[in-house]
Design a protein that fits this description.
The chain is of the alpha/beta class. The protein has 13 helices and eleven strands.
Length: 318
């Protein structure tokens, strides 16, 4: 746990409210541009705020490290007190900051898994435009580096990622999909569109591996093991779920992907979803958020909007 030097909170009391929020954004983002976007401040204005903060604390606070910035020891010691102060201010102002989507100009920031990006990004952006025409949303791919998950959770309003990977923070299930087995339409092992357990055991597989998963056993692995296939013949490993169908096309391999993703590439890649003796294997995408955003009116609204979008998507494919 980071300890605070005597006087840390006293020096924070001397910082005006605008600089306090700027300091909080800088300590979390560690980037002038992102901190400015978060507070809707220009980069020169954010640079000016940083200069005043450096003078006040007689410390650089952010120092260049490679292509990014690192916090100085003083900045690290400030973080807990700054977070407490900002959360207290937000809690005090919460009832006065009711979110009005029709008139707001908020810029949301959401990170998504590749699968969620293909399924939810378009309808989410479209409905956001309809209900909150002055708002915008920045969508970026989920950083699967386990060490970056905590930082990304703090910097984003929401993260959309599968359940089961033990992400920190709060979560809410959004949508469920079933995995299907993809193979080339001319695969010699296909019999009336189906594969046997022996086929699945002997065939080469292409799999997507995620560093964020760690040692967690995924639902497909559990189902394969239940059916006596604990040692798949994994020929190709990729880091991207979206590349799996392309890796399998025109080969004797198979792969398992969510059905909504599969439908988008069957005809384009000359693939088919083969029936198998395996039981249903479902995956659930969930919204994850930092506890400090639990009662933020705009994020509460965004979570409800995302849920409505997911229900619409599931109804369209049911």
């Amino acid at each position: 746990m980071v300890t605070q030097e005597p006087g840390t909170r006293e020096r924070l009391r001397e910082v005006d409210a605008n600089l306090l929020f700027a300091l909080h954004a800088l300590l979390e983002e560690r980037n002038l541009t992102r901190a400015g976007e978060r507070l809707m401040m220009s980069q020169p204005a954010m640079s000016g705020a940083l200069a005043r903060l450096r003078k006040h604390f007689d410390d650089e606070l952010l120092v260049r490290s490679g292509r990014g910035f690192e916090l100085t020891p003083t900045a690290e010691r400030l973080r807990p007190a700054v977070t407490d102060a900002v959360e207290a201010a937000e809690a005090l102002l919460g009832n006065e900051r009711a979110f009005a989507p029709a008139t707001s100009a908020k810029r949301f920031a959401v990170s998504m898994s590749e699968y969620a990006m293909t399924v939810l990004a378009e309808p989410l952006a479209r409905i956001l435009t309809e209900q909150a025409p002055g708002c915008s949303i920045t969508l970026d791919p989920l950083d699967l580096d386990r060490e970056q998950i905590d930082a990304q959770l703090m910097r984003r309003d929401l993260i959309i990622a599968p359940l089961g990977f033990d992400f920190p923070g709060r979560s809410q299930p959004v949508s469920t999909d079933e995995l299907v087995c993809l193979v080339d339409r001319q695969h010699p092992r296909l019999r009336d569109g189906a594969l046997s357990l022996q086929d699945l055991h002997e065939m080469p597989h292409a799999v997507a591996e995620f560093t964020a998963a760690g040692p967690v056993r995924r639902p497909l692995e559990i189902e394969l093991e239940r059916n006596g296939i604990a040692d798949r013949n994994v020929l190709v490993r990729v880091r991207s779920l979206l590349t799996l169908p392309f890796a399998v096309a025109g080969t004797d391999m198979c792969c398992f992907v969510p059905s909504r993703l599969a439908r988008r590439c069957l005809d384009v890649l000359n693939l088919t979803a083969a029936r198998t003796p395996l039981g249903p294997v479902n995956i659930t995408e969930a919204a994850h958020w930092h506890p400090r955003r639990e009662t933020d009116p705009s994020v509460v609204w965004l979570r409800q909007l995302l849920y409505d979008v997911a229900v619409t998507v599931e109804d369209e494919h049911s």
